[in-house]
């Protein structure tokens, strides 16, 4: 814009000049603001990942116990053999030397070699990751859909019997430790109690010997109780956030206007109120996905599910330091990455954020 209020000319690709409208300049400012916002969030994520890398090295060295003696299984081993094991795994080096080696290798994708499996940590993680994703993604889809559906219905009928029941049940289940609920489900539905027979396996991922569609059904049979445990514990948070956000929107003037135009209540809810109320819920969905991957340790341990959580518990009992460090980094990275994606998505849903 020139001093006399005329839009300033801008150069085009063909060499001609065009007038830059206020709308064009506004879009460029918005893009620049979003790029600065995104760069700051990505930079913060990188710093957080580096901090996790450093923390994971020192944190698990506070665990009492000698990994080398644990690996020998209580057998009589000479001092020379113990020294050979320590030299093989680099445990004879000064702590600062171990730390620099660990950081240097981790930055290239090498998380070390597992003490108990004598295999690269990254290979063990890659092997167990699909099993964890099968459990967590299945549970995530179910508890997100259930939480959003029940949350919208509870808010639209706020104060009614259904609202009070759903909110009370969600709060109660959200307060229950996942491992306790998992054990309870095993006692009731796997072992059997009274007239209830044992309908599901007590643990594991498969019975063995099945192929084709029978194998899929077998895995689904083993998957049922762990998924129910995660869904029961996690859906309540999504329900409560969705309900609260929708209640905030229901007093808006635009809903009164929509009703005055003759729209039915269900259309007002689906077309106007719910989309605006979904902004905080969308953020929570991304955060929950990362948190579910990181928080599946107890559920996988209780149900002997062969995923990252069960592997972490197994490594922690040695302690298998390289494997524990690698898994801790993966769990923390899942939370950090999902938080960052939520931060990057939010300004696209609500342009007021990041300006």
TrEMBL record:
Q: How does it sit in the membrane?
A: Multi-pass membrane protein
Q: Which Gene3D superfamilies match?
A: MetI-like
Q: Where are the transmembrane segments?
A: 42-63, 133-156, 168-192, 212-233, 279-303, 323-346
Question: What GO cellular component term, any one, is given?
Answer: plasma membrane
**CDD domains on file:** TM_PBP2
Where the record annotates domain ABC transmembrane type-1, the positions are 129-346
Among the GO biological process terms of this entry, one is: transmembrane transport
Chain positions covered by the region annotation Disordered: 1-25
InterPro entries, alphabetically? Answer: BPD_transp_1_N (IPR045621), MetI-like (IPR000515), MetI-like_sf (IPR035906)
Q: Is Transmembrane set as a keyword in this record? A: yes
Q: What is its main location?
A: membrane
UniProt feature coiled coil, ranges = none
Listed Pfam families: BPD_transp_1, BPD_transp_1_N
**What keywords tag this UniProt record?**
Cell membrane, Membrane, Transmembrane, Transmembrane helix, Transport
Where would you find this protein in the cell? Cell membrane
Q: Which family does it belong to?
A: Belongs to the binding-protein-dependent transport system permease family.
Q: What is this protein called?
A: ABC transporter permease
